[in-house]
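hey so i finally got around to running the thing on that chain from the lab meeting. sorry it took forever, my laptop kept dying and i had to restart like 3 times. anyway pasting the input first so we r on the same page abt which one it is
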Amino acid sequence: MLLYPFIISIVWGIVPIILKLFLSIIPHEFIMLISSITLFISTVIYTVFFNYHKIVEGYSNITLKFVLLLIITFFIASFICQLLYLKTLKNYNPNIPVLIIASAPIITIIASYYILNDKLKYIQLFGCVLIFIGLYLLLKYKN
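ok and heres what got predicted. didnt touch it at all, straight out
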């Protein structure tokens, strides 16, 4: 459902402001801890009560290599990126870091082209160029 990305963008658009306010009064380590605990509890509740059968069905497809790759991926994506994100928010106005992070779709488009052999449409390429131009202007005239 395409409504979900819009909901996500609204939530992710507000969260940096809330985090910036909290980072002025509490350490980023505490925020990371609360975030991790909340995610863990929410995931357990969601999985156990709503999707337990999917865990049981998917268990037969899991290999040690797959689990290790997931652990590495989520360690980098969750822990390392959250740590860097909170440290950046603490030291900067949220506008510039959030806009830089918003360029992530460019990486996704390029990676999916090379790794998944997805087709790259001209409009996507044009969008990437516009994002790069916007980032360049943002960083050049940030003051």
